[in-house]
Design brief:
Blueprint (H helix, E strand, L loop, with lengths): L1 E4 L5 H11 L6 H9 L3 E8 L2 E10 L4 E9 L8 H12 L5 E7 L3 H9 L3 E10 L4 E9 L4
Parallel strand pairs: 4-5
Antiparallel strand pairs: 1-2, 2-3, 3-4, 5-7, 6-7
Length: 146
């Protein structure tokens, strides 16, 4: 497996993984917007010439970022793909000192991954997700001393 920058050629596979992974997936136009956004770090994990996962991290202020999306093909989950994608994103988030995210309260695998990478719980957003309606935990990773 290798982690490389996403390109428009990867869009069909990224869109397929998004559809398989989420009950309320992003529209392809939103994914394409982030792919072309200069403030967005957007990588894919590739194995045997196929995209098996992706990660989208956007700089939202000078020192702040938002982990917008991370998804792995269901056929390869549990093999460390999300961990590799998040590790790469964090390594390339130069100058971003605070990274925020939302995660379904029931998504224990993702919560464990984020905690492993230094994200801490900030709070809870009621009814943040649709289909099904569910709360989200807000989490933040701070990479500097206060």
């Amino acid at each position: 497996m290798i982690i490389i920058p996403a390109t428009e050629a990867h869009m069909p596979e990224i869109t397929a993984i998004e559809q398989e992974s989420f009950t309320s997936p992003w529209a392809p136009g939103l994914i394409l917007y982030e792919l072309n956004n200069p403030d967005t770090y957007f990588d894919v994990a590739v194995e045997n010439n196929a995209v098996i996962g992706f990660c989208i991290l956007r700089r939202i202020a000078e020192i702040e970022g938002d982990l917008l999306n991370i998804a792995v093909s269901p056929s390869v989950r549990g093999r460390g793909v999300a961990d590799a994608l998040l590790t790469s994103a964090l390594a390339h988030a130069v100058g971003i000192e605070e990274i925020y995210l939302e995660v379904r309260v029931s998504n224990s695998a993702a919560i464990s991954l984020y905690e492993k990478h230094g994200f801490r719980h900030l709070g809870r957003r009621k009814h943040y997700y649709d289909n099904p309606i569910e709360d989200a935990f807000t989490m933040c990773r701070v990479s500097r001393l206060r």
